[in-house]
Amino acid sequence: MSLDKTKTSEHVHLLAALNYYSRIRFMANLATLIQNATSPRRIVNVGGGGMEGLLDATDLPGLRVTPDMIRGHLSTLITLGIEAIQKTAPKISFIHNYPGTVLTGLYRDMETIPFDPSLAMPLDECGERHLYLATSKRYPSLVQDTVTVRVQGGDDVAIGTTGEFGTGVYSIGSDGEAVSESRAILAQLRQQGMVEEIQRHTMGEFIRILGS
């Protein structure tokens, strides 16, 4: 995945298109169907949960954001973008998580970056953790949660991105726990109206490119 300022044919920052716009589009398109589901109504977005950082409100696509800041910028964009979707889909539980380093094709292709494979998350464990995230009672939706699986021990309701229990949007780190370090940044951005601003920007891009 390139960290340069490559744009798509629609003139969207490629990195943001892959990490943010496409994911939000999938969630928005599926929200109505998922809200009416009888099985657990949950969306798990595998990205940079817990890595939310400073957001450049003047450059939401991140074309001018420096490489050392882009992960925090995009992670924040995703989390607040999810919060915007939840406002119209309160029956869905949303999880934005960071799985840790997993030796997928992405890392195998990055030969110039030194990395000790023994520090990586085993593929089987990664799968087990995500099955837990997708089914556990720890992460209820804001209203009318459906049947989920209770795991013995350590299965209390998780703290959401607003710092309160069971609010329906959860930022989960590589250890499987809700991350507290980013909550102050997210709270400040909410107070500044950035959830609504991100939603306006995102819908504007969808209309510009797709017509709706």
Structural features, described:
One of its GO terms (molecular function) is oxidoreductase activity. Keywords: Oxidoreductase. The chain has helices at residues 14-35, 67-86, 105-108, 123-135, 183-191, 194-210, and strands at residues 42-46, 93-97, 169-172. It is mainly alpha-helical and 212 residues long. It has one domain (14-210). A three-stranded parallel beta sheet has the order 1-2-3, with helices on both faces. β1, α2 and β2 (93-97) form a beta-alpha-beta unit. α1 (14-35) runs parallel beside α2 (67-86) and α2 (67-86) packs across α6 (194-210). The relative contact order is 0.16.
Compose a concise summary of this entry.
The protein is mainly alpha-helical. Helix content is 40%, strand content 7%.
Please write out the topology:
Layout: H1 14-35, E1 42-46, H2 67-86, E2 93-97, H3 105-108, H4 123-135, E3 169-172, H5 183-191, H6 194-210
Parallel strand pairs: 1-2, 2-3
Helix pairs in contact: 1-2, 2-6
